[in-house]
UniProtKB/TrEMBL annotation:
UniProt KW RNA-binding keyword: no
Keywords: Lipoprotein, Membrane, Palmitate, Signal
Annotated InterPro entries: MliC (IPR018660), MliC_sf (IPR036328)
SUPFAM superfamilies assigned to the protein according to its UniProt record, in alphabetical order: YdhA-like
Protein name: C-type lysozyme inhibitor domain-containing protein
Organism domain of life: Bacteria
Segments forming domain C-type lysozyme inhibitor: 44-103
Lineage start: Bacteria, Pseudomonadati, Pseudomonadota, Betaproteobacteria, Rhodocyclales
One Pfam family named in its UniProt record: MliC
Keyword Ribonucleoprotein: no
Length: 117
């Protein structure tokens, strides 16, 4: 018999420690899964001063602008690359990028500024 006035305290401490360890491991796995498919991230700058980045993934891109983050799917294009979510359109023709968004002026002649693997 122990002198602890609260039976099961050791059991509770073990359960809490296991829960903390499991939570940490789950968070690490989730962050790894989130970035595993990323092939590259490219920052773009446009003549009008706008900047945005594009994370090229296997079957879509993740566009980051001052307005938020948008997932755009691959779309058929006559030439070059085209991605859209039905509203926002990102086009890449050679080294020139173009960003079209409803209610905003088109950002054309945008050029890659950096590339991270």
């Amino acid at each position: 018999m122990t002198n602890d006035p609260r039976p099961g305290t050791a059991n509770l401490k073990i359960r809490v420690a296991l829960l903390v360890a499991l939570s940490g491991a789950t968070g690490m796995l989730a962050s790894t899964a989130y970035t595993r498919d990323a092939s590259r991230v490219v920052g773009y700058a446009c003549p009008g001063g706008e900047r945005f980045s594009v994370e090229y993934l296997r079957d879509h891109i993740r566009l980051r602008t001052g307005a938020g983050i948008f997932a755009l799917a691959v779309q058929p294009a006559g030439s070059g690359e085209k991605y859209s979510d039905g509203h926002t359109v990102f086009r890449l023709q050679g080294s020139e990028a173009r960003l079209e968004r409803p209610g905003l002026a088109t950002s054309a002649d945008c050029r890659a500024q950096d590339q991270r693997l």
